[in-house]
Amino acid sequence: MSKKSSIIAGIIIGIAAIAGGIYIAMSLTSVDQGEVGVVWSVQNGVQEKTLGPGIHFVGPFNRVENFPVSQQQLVLSNNAADFNEKKLEKDTHVDAPADGGMVKMNMTVNYNFIPEKVTSVYEKFNGMDGNQIVESKVKNSILAYIKEVTPQFSVMDIYSDKRAEVGQAITEYLNAKLGEEYGMEVSSALIIDVQLDEELQTKVQAKEQAKQDAEKAELDKQTAIAQGEADKAKAEADKAVTITNAEAEAEANRIKAASITDELIKMTEAEARKEHGWVTVQGADTVVTDSTEK
User: Fold this and answer.
1) Of 188, 190, 183, nearest to 69 (Cα)?
2) Are 64 and 31 in contact (CB under 8 A)?
3) Exposure string (b/e) for 151-172, b if CB count within 10 Å is 16 or more?
4) What angle do CA 278, 284, 287 make, to 5 degrees?
5) What average pLDDT does the chain have?
6) Which H or E run contains 276?
7) Under the phi-then-psi rule, with left for phi > 0, alpha for psi from -120 to 50, and beta for the rest, what region is 84?
8) Taking a C-beta distance cutoff of 8 angstroms, is the pair 40, 121 a contact?
9) Could you give the dihedral angle defined by the CA atoms of residues 191, 195, 160 and 100, in that order, rounded to the nearest 10 degrees?
10) Per-residue pLDDT tens for 222-248?
């Protein structure tokens, strides 16, 4: 083979190697942990079977879009710290109507795509992947659906003592709506913070203070009642002890008196006369005095 032919052969081999490398590179795709890949091909359209985590050979003309099926978190907030950031890039808090006024809520929504529904969702939204659907569709829907739930609750409910109940109601509503519309499920919608305008803040604080004052007054009342009951019980116990002691003393005297018999008196008299030559014995009804000499 001539030198020229060798060069040409080397060029062809090199081109083939490059082409093969490009083909392989274009044919490989990766699916991250916690995701599934939806495969679309020119010949067959969307394939029913999805790809699991890992590297897959799908061919150069097939397209794969990934959907998160493990739990993801959507943060809706005007506080950079809620995003673990120092500076807020975009304010996404919820301006929600409530019974009595408007509230600003910072929230987190934990969600995932349902694996069995991702292919139909992919078809429905013209080949968009999961993140694109969330950013362009789902986020706006969530904001709208939250505003359909909050009017069921008062400002005070949302601001203070019923946040968990409000969050549960939002979770259930989002599940019903997003499951049907986007093939998603929501595990929780949590209220991080609630902000009020100055006028509404003053009203709520006054109402909260009145509630605390009423609770304190009721507590003081119950404490006074309890103390009164305790004092009454102590007095009755002391009275019972006094009665018991008096009865015990009377019974002891009765037993003592009953024990002094004529025989006991005579015996005591004889012993005293023998020892002293005189004796004074006082019984229940008898006094005996003996002053005889020994």
Assistant:
1) 183
2) yes
3) eebbbbbbbeebbeebbebbbe
4) 30
5) 81
6) helix 262-276
7) left
8) no
9) -110
10) 888 888 888 888 888 888 777 777 777
- Backbone phi and psi for residue 40, each to the nearest 5 degrees, phi listed first: -125, 135
DSSP label at residue 86: S
Q: Could you tell me which residue, 114 or 244, shows the higher pLDDT?
A: 114
In this predicted structure, the answer to whether residue 289 has a pLDDT above a threshold of 60 is no
Most confident of 10-24, 62-76, 226-240: 62-76
DSSP symbol at 48: S
Residue 103, strand partner residues: 96
Tokens of residue 108, six digits: 């987190």
CATH number of 72-196: 3.30.479.30
Burial class (CB in 10 A: 0-12, 13-18, 19+), 130: buried
Question: Hey, what amino acid is at 62?
Answer: N
- Residue type present at position 138: V
pTM above 0.85, yes or no: no
Return d(Cα 187, Cα 195) in angstroms, integer.
Answer: 24
- The total of other beta-carbon atoms located within 10 Å of residue 242's CB is 10
pLDDT tens, 21-39?
565 556 677 888 899 888 8
Q: Residue 100: CB partners within 8 Å, gap ≥ 6?
A: 154, 155, 156, 200
Domain chopping of the chain, boundaries: 3-67, 72-196, 204-258, 260-290
